[in-house]
Amino acid sequence: xxxxxxxxxxxxxxxxxxxxxxxxxxxxxxxxxxxxxxxxxxxxxxxxxxxxxxxxxxxxxxxxxxxxxxxxxxxxxxx
Length: 79
Hints:
Elements: E1 2-10, E2 13-20, H1 23-35, E3 44-52, E4 60-69
Antiparallel strand pairs: 1-2, 2-4, 3-4
């Protein structure tokens, strides 16, 4: 399970905040975003921290923030 809590774009810069149940879930999400062709370079995981949530089966969620730069699909990747 992964849910987004905030998406903010300023020009080409995009910041995404959310929560997930495992770091592998976050990693898979980042890999999928990178493979989409909508971002200029690797996506940066700015922060990730666990927070207790007794109502979930795992007992905690991972709160994360990631940052990326947008591009049009098919546009040459700038490094």
